[in-house]
UniProtKB/TrEMBL annotation:
This is Universal stress protein UspA-related nucleotide-binding proteins. Pfam families: Usp (PF00582). It comes from the Bacteria. Belongs to the universal stress protein A family. It comes from Nocardioides simplex (Arthrobacter simplex).
Amino acid sequence: MPELIVVGVDGNERAERAADTAARLAAATGAGLHVVCAYVRDQAAEISVADGTHEVSIARESADIAARVAGRLAEVVPGVTSSAVQGRPADVLLAEADRLDASLIVVGNRRMQGIARVLGSVPAAVAHHAPCDVYIVNTG
């Protein structure tokens, strides 16, 4: 039985499906759940709109995505945690699983079709290098 499950999200519907599956697994097994959103590099910009100027940051947006998903999943799994980490998605999932001593990584299969199978994908990289078990959700 997993003690802690790590799932990656990026704001798209398929990642949300993987997160939903991770929450169901956590609820069924009594495991904790950690939601992580990776971003390649932080960039900030100021945007002028009718009511003033707003600062936009990729790191902050990524943290907001992870927190939003964690908040939604907290209805199923109390105590869900979240983070946003700079790096490539597969590297971030692997590092967070290692840092948190996770027993399961849940990832969607959305990039495992066609040429991605030959060139590599997040699910393939995670499955190949994971420090724990990996559950690949059919999010197609």
